[in-house]
Amino acid sequence: GSMQLGVVPFENGQYVRLLNRGRAGGYLFADESGKGLSTDTRREMINTVWRVQILETEAVHVVLRGAYGRHLAATPMNAGFGHIGELATQCVFETMEDIHLMWRTIPGSRAGDIVLLNDTSSLRALRANGLYRPWNTGVTLQAIDRTNARLSLMMEWGVQVIPEVQRPPFQLRPAA
């Protein structure tokens, strides 16, 4: 059957960390460049914090804003040597037509875990890369089949909601 795309378990205005379930683990990390993404185990860094915005157009999507005021984005660019699929990056959100910044979710294999999907050119899942090369911490997009989605743990993310009292002050500063 076809997969049920939604935004569960995200809620508008939340601050979250996304922990990759692959062997290398690590949090989705907004690189200091304000452009790149990686996975990183340093949980306490503000780079691991993402602000959730739920957008309703024809469909409901989630937009994730990182520590440098930029948003998690899909690109059509090849991810480069040693990486699977296409490049994921940080981008400025300009208009409601920026569909490369809009994500939907399907449940992962464990309760509360999700797969983040972008549907610009084909349906692609956000994934970590470090399985065979632990030093390869890049985050990329891998195309998946709508009807027979074969998902790996590298595509599954645990959503950790940050309680209001623990939110870092001035967390979402724009890139310099």
From TrEMBL:
The DUF569 domain, residue ranges: 10-148
InterPro entries for the chain: Actin-crosslinking (IPR008999), DUF569 (IPR007679)
Tree of life domain: Eukaryota
Listed Pfam families: DUF569 (PF04601)
Protein name stated in the entry: DUF569 domain-containing protein
Lineage, uppermost ranks: Eukaryota, Viridiplantae, Streptophyta, Embryophyta, Tracheophyta
